[in-house]
Amino acid sequence: MSKQRILINGFINTNVLDGSAIFLSSITQVVAMHPDAEIDLLLAVPFKRDVVLKDLMTLPNVRIIDPFAEEAYSDFPFFKKGGMTPREAALMLDFTFQQLHYDIVIIRSLEVVQELVRMDSRVISKLFAYITGITSHTTAIPEVTQHLLNDIIAKGGKLLCQTNEMKRYICQSVQIEASDIIYLNPMIPDNPYTFQQLFTAKEIYSSFCYTGKFAREWNIVPIVAQFREVTEQYPDATLYFAGDYFKNDVDHPSFVHEAGYLLRNTENLKWLGGLNRDESMDLIRFSDVGISYRAADLDDSLELSTKLLEYCSMAVPPILNRTEMHEAIFGIDYPYYANDDRTFHEQMIKVIENPALYEATAEKVYAISKQFSFTATYHRLAPHLFGAANNRTEEIERQVLIQEQPVYNESAGLYAFPLNGHDDLYIQQAAQLGRLKSVSMRNDVALCQIQPGEQNAVKDIIAVVKELSQHTALDHSMKSVDDIERLIIYKTEQNQVKAAPRRKAAAPANIEAENLKLKKSLSDVQRKYNSLSSSKLGGLQKKYWQMRNNRKKKKLQKNK
């Protein structure tokens, strides 16, 4: 296959870490897995921070275009303004398309696509438009959106949507053929850890976590209220909250105040503030349960939470609402569904009191998350973008990832299996088919070359096992280590110090009060420092600081 030139764009602020920006980064990484893909990611805002785009900068087949810094776009009005309208974004896309002649264009913004349709741009014929704004069965799709979706298809474009439930609803409401809408599931990065590496058996599982935005419909207040009752029965239970964005609610104006008060004044609740994505995943990984319990008015949602899948990828079972969509993914018999406060409370107690059920569920959700990995997503999406797989190995790999089972192709002499912690069993099965010639790993799949009819020598099996162990034996820390909690708190405090807004100068009458506040803050910092320094991690950190200071002193003395 010849090189495939791909243009990706979203009318999205890629300087802010949120779901839409993460989508743009994720879809770029997924499409970049194709060996013949050459991708241009065209930004809609000036590049200022790498918080979202950092993972793309090391990909050899991805180029990030900042149109606010490229001379080719200097004649556009947005170039000097530092921002663009949907109309300007459409003009920019049309210009770029005409200059560089792309084979595929992926856009997340129906507003921008609407402008391209009005312009009768040739972009539409190569377009895969990601649908947003259709979130519920109970909300009618606006006529203007219905016309737009039909116009895209009539001009040769395709549509992408997040869930099969959304796809069915659109097909029923807009009379669009199912073949014109492509299912593009929420995507999570490939997990390098096996379940055995992630999971640590304990006598009791009692740490819960919530990461994300704080909104009324996310049940922040009920979650904390029910956790308070749990601690009356189990005083060692812990609840971690990560996030610092509060969404105001017009119908419930006291929500922000109530939620903030509970977060600050609940025993055993540790509010870590805003964490970056890596820190958030660390927190999830070292918790026992993720919380995705939401208000009943979201039960008919057509969207699937990426955060829910991130919990599962770390072998952390979530407590979530029972909905048709969730039952399709997790099963009718999933043990931790909750659709009201009483049941949510009961599920937290169930986690604590039934460790055997918890352990079985942890392995189940880990396996479920594999269906949404970048690699699994790529194998579902690639045929729609690039056509059928052009080699036998890639097709076998795709089958393994979709089925989560080994696949043996005798004519190719290839036995492929998923890297899911059952390597010993799969190697035994492979050895029964013939001599193990070699093994390689690609995209969470092991590919064993086999010579049928020949017997294995001990060295053959040892060589395969050794190669596999080098790939899967990743370093990881055990759960429930006190230093992990201190580390997260320490990093969070450092982030908050960096992001702290400047205070206005205090009026003379308030100086004494400000001094008291500063003294208290200093006392709190000293107390936390003492707590940190008494830990093993803190001791190492202090030694590092001392070593660094000694080096500085020696350097200064040398320069004198």
What is the percentage of strand-forming residues?
A: 5-15%
Unreliable segments of 5+ consecutive residues: 474-478, 495-520, 531-545
Helical amount among residues, as a percent range?
A: 40-55%
Q: Could you state the CATH homologous superfamily of the largest domain?
A: Glycogen Phosphorylase B
CATH class of the largest domain: Alpha Beta
Kindly state the number of beta strands: 16
Mean of all residue-level pLDDT scores: 84
Strand order of the largest sheet: 3-2-1-4-5-6-7
Estimated structural class: alpha/beta
- Per the principal axes of the C-alpha atoms, what is the gross shape? globular
Task: Provide the CATH architecture of the largest domain.
Answer: 3-Layer(aba) Sandwich
Number of domains: 4
Tally of alpha and pi helices: 21
Rg, rounded, reads 27 Å
CATH topology heading of the largest domain:
Rossmann fold
Distance between the ends? 64 Å
The largest sheet is: 7 strands, parallel
Task: Name the assembly state.
Answer: single chain
Keywords: Transferase
Biased composition (Basic residues): 549-560
Protein name: Glycosyltransferase family 1 protein
GO molecular function, one term: transferase activity
Written overview of the protein:
- This is Glycosyltransferase family 1 protein.
- Residues 540-560 are annotated as: Disordered.
- Helix content is 47%, strand content 14%.
- It is of the alpha/beta class and 560 residues long.
- It folds into 4 domains: 4-183, Glycogen Phosphorylase B (Rossmann fold, 3-Layer(aba) Sandwich), CATH 3.40.50; 195-372, Glycogen Phosphorylase B (Rossmann fold); 404-472, no CATH class; 511-559.
